[in-house]
Design brief:
The protein has 192 residues and is an alpha+beta fold. Helix content is 26%, strand content 23%. A 4-stranded antiparallel β-sheet has the order 1-2-4-3, with helices on one face. Strands 7-8-10-9 form a 4-stranded antiparallel β-sheet. It has a two-stranded antiparallel ribbon with strand order 5-6. It is globular. About 3% of the residues have low confidence.
């Protein structure tokens, strides 16, 4: 995911994007699209080996090292462990690209008959955002934001989480109509 890093020696801000996905899974395509989008920042793409893998250089990172990091990213109310959570301040800055990244990181398409799953009770495509690692009130902030732009959804309890101080176990279920709008919005950023 995204994280902000401030170099202590030079007090230089940088925005880094790390994907804990294996190479050639489609995420590399997104990294290279981001390289084009942030060309003015002289981004640096690198490959590294995951600490959980024996396959060399199985991950791709992009470092937008010269980007000025907005102050709101340093606001503790907007932070969740090493990333950002869903506050009104963060939702005001959401773009179709950031929604695409959220979906690729924490989203899933729900099985349905239209996709060839004859055993499914659902007929049409819908999706979920697995926000269970966020606090319930922050999940509702994102849900309200999505409903406000026509991406109709509901918040549902999914499962207990190990650390209840950090998360509450709620997910966002996007209904059929909302999924159509959501997918139209993010489609150009999703690797094929």
């Amino acid at each position: 995911g995204w994280f902000v890093n401030r170099r202590k020696k030079s007090n230089e801000n940088k925005l880094e994007i790390h994907y804990s996905k294996t190479k050639n899974s489609g995420y590399d395509t997104l990294i290279y699209k981001m390289e084009d989008a942030f060309e003015f920042n002289n981004p640096v793409i690198s490959n590294r080996t995951s600490g959980y893998s024996k396959i060399k250089d199985n991950m791709t990172d992009i470092n937008l090292h010269s980007m000025n990091v907005p102050e709101y990213m340093y606001d503790k109310r907007n932070q969740l462990r090493c990333g950002l959570t869903f506050t009104h301040n963060i939702c005001e800055k959401i773009t179709p690209l950031s929604l695409a990244i959220l979906y690729m990181d924490d989203g899933s398409k729900i099985r349905c008959k239209n996709d060839g799953f004859s055993d499914s009770i659902r007929v049409q495509t819908s999706c979920m955002l697995h926000t269970n690692r966020h606090k319930k009130e922050n999940v509702y902030v994102l849900s309200d934001y999505l409903n406000g732009i026509g991406i109709t959804n509901t918040v549902r309890f999914a499962k207990d989480v190990k650390n209840k101080e950090l998360a509450d176990g709620y997910v966002i279920y996007i209904d059929v109509n909302g999924t159509e709008i959501f997918f139209d919005l993010i489609a150009k950023y999703i690797p094929k």
